[in-house]
């Protein structure tokens, strides 16, 4: 096993996560199997209870792990499936050590940071690095490790010490350190300054680690004399200094690494440059095409993002990426109009009329409206008003998690005339309670007590837009993160009033997808489709939103289904293409003979 450690210096927010992901992309393009680990030095066990304002969005994995948003970058860039163990936190490490101490594993010993905490960190890395994450058998070839925070932070000291010991444990040729640092330009002087990076590397060396590769962040490409100076004072060969200057989109970062031969520097340190299975040059034609295509997009599509964390885009990072993936696929230039939901409310018209006017202008000028997930009652009325506007004016609407629940509440109030309809999350005495607390949830503990991770949704309505977007699949697996759900006892009333619940769980008691059949595109999903969107494989629901917002929905639906209903006879024998990957071919053949497909998909012979 080979290890690549990515650290950061000078300031936070330099893009270590994107750098680590891009290194993984380039190594994968060289024919290597790659896994990743993110180390977060905070004391929280996981990111589940952290505010988006504190740490950006909480990314959810298939196994229900609530993790740092950088793991989302890893999954999107590398098209892999990680587990909760791929995110190490100080809380997890100390909890593991304390549990061992209580069991008596250290009986007679004084439990200390060194060696017990540092050993636990190293053991964790070695154990998790061996787990395949690409769907293939056997361990990966390379593990890319990102150390969160900045070198010199007090909370990361045990990890730095552990990683120093770890480099010695795995030995030369198995460990490569990539240090991401800042080369700023002071406006007064107007030249690129190397001193911050020099001090950062000096601090790294004092802690027992020496960089093999320098990844220098800057606004413009590094000047030649700056690279020479960095090489001289940081003791890194010029060939191992990589410049990650600002680019038009992050898909250019792997291309920057490739063009500057960063893969050759890393492979040389890892003693892999002569391995027979590693191509001399990484194959990144798809990335090149995607990055170039993005830069050439001209026709805009405006999506109004209605939420309460609009002041920090990282709060909705996966949603933004899913919108971007879909807009590029539909050849549209994405324009996101941030609409604070509070500013849409009537109270805002009195307290801040300018903000109220601006919010409504953005909403009414949008081609599509998206209400993402969230918690708490702040701004809920504004989200309800956004859903109402979309429904009444035939504007494409996608509601995710809370966004779906909001749409249900609005429908109950406006169409069914149930003025007191609400969620018990916002009003415990709501009459009627359209959205209720899930029976298996906990009202005393917040962390890891929601319905989390990958769950299966079954389609129940033939020809609905959602099923068609998913290629007429009978079921889909998507990731969840919620503790409230649509009240199943009210579903018959909703359906009689015209709201369709086209997707349900295996019990048919938990509502997963809603649609308004008479609307151009009005869909709500209890799950979070953004978590599984990939640059080359956009989320179907996001594709649908962008297509509807840009007048391309019907052609998209036709393309989605065009290859799914082809059957023919050969010498009197029925032949069938595997229309639904989730349904065995034998089952599909029996359904063909009987003249229908299971679960109401309605493909007839």
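Sequence proposed for the structure above (605 residues):
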């Amino acid at each position: 096993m080979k290890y690549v450690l990515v650290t950061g210096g000078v300031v936070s927010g330099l893009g270590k996560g994107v750098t680590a992901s891009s290194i993984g992309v380039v190594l994968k393009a060289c024919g290597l199997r790659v896994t990743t680990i993110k180390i977060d030095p905070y004391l929280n066990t996981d990111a589940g209870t952290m505010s988006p304002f504190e740490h950006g969005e909480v990314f959810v994995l298939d196994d229900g792990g609530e993790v740092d948003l950088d793991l989302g970058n890893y999954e999107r860039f590398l098209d892999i499936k990680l587990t909760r163990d791929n995110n190490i936190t100080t809380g997890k490490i100390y909890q593991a050590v304390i549990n061992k101490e209580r069991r008596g594993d250290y009986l007679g010993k004084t439990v200390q940071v060194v060696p017990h905490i540092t050993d636990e960190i190293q053991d964790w890395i070695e154990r998790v690095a061996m787990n395949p994450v690409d769907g293939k058998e056997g361990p990966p070839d390379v593990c890319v490790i990102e150390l969160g925070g900045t070198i010199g932070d007090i909370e990361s000291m045990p990890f730095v010490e552990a990683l120093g010991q770890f480099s010695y444990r795995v030995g030369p040729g198995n460990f490569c350190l990539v240090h991401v640092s800042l080369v700023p330009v002071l406006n007064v002087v107007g030249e690129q300054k190397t001193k911050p990076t020099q001090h950062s590397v000096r601090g790294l060396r004092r802690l027992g680690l020496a960089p093999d590769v320098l990844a220098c962040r800057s606004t413009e490409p590094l000047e030649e004399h700056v690279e020479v100076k960095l090489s001289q004072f940081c003791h890194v060969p010029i060939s191992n200094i990589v410049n990650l200057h600002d680019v038009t989109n992050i898909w250019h970062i792997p291309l920057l690494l490739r063009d500057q031969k960063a893969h050759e520097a890393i492979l040389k340190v890892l003693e892999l440059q002569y391995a027979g299975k590693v191509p001399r040059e990484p194959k990144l034609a798809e990335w090149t095409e995607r990055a170039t295509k993005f830069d050439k997009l001209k026709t805009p599509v405006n999506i109004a993002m209605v939420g309460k964390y609009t002041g920090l885009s990282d709060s909705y990072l996966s949603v933004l990426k899913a919108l971007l993936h879909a807009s590029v696929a539909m050849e549209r230039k994405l324009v996101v109009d941030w609409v604070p939901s509070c500013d849409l409310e009537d109270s805002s018209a009195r307290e801040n009329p300018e903000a109220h006017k601006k919010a409504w202008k953005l909403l009414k000028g949008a081609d599509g409206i998206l209400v993402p997930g969230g918690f708490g009652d702040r701004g809920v009325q504004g989200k309800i008003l956004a859903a109402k506007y979309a429904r009444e004016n035939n504007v494409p609407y996608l509601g995710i998690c809370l966004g779906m629940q909001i749409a249900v509440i609005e429908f109950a109030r406006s169409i069914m005339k149930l003025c007191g309809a609400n969620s018990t999350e916002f009003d415990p005495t709501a009459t009627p309670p359209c959205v209720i607390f899930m029976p298996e949830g906990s009202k005393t503990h917040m962390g890891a007590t929601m319905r989390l991770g990958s769950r299966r949704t079954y389609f129940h309505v033939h020809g609905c837009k959602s099923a068609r977007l998913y290629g007429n699949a009978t079921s889909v697996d998507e990731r969840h993160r919620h503790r409230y759900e649509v009240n199943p006892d009210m579903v018959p009333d909703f359906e009689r009033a015209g709201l369709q619940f086209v997707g349900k769980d295996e019990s048919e008691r938990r509502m997963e997808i809603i649609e308004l059949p008479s609307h151009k595109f009005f869909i709500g999903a209890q799950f979070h489709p953004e978590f599984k969107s990939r640059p080359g494989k956009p989320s179907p629901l996001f594709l649908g939103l962008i297509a509807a917002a840009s007048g391309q929905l019907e052609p998209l639906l036709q393309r989605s289904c065009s290859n799914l209903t082809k059957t023919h006879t050969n010498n009197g024998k029925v032949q069938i293409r595997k229309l639904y990957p989730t349904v065995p071919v034998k089952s599909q053949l029996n359904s063909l003979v009987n003249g229908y497909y299971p679960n109401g998909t309605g493909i007839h012979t």
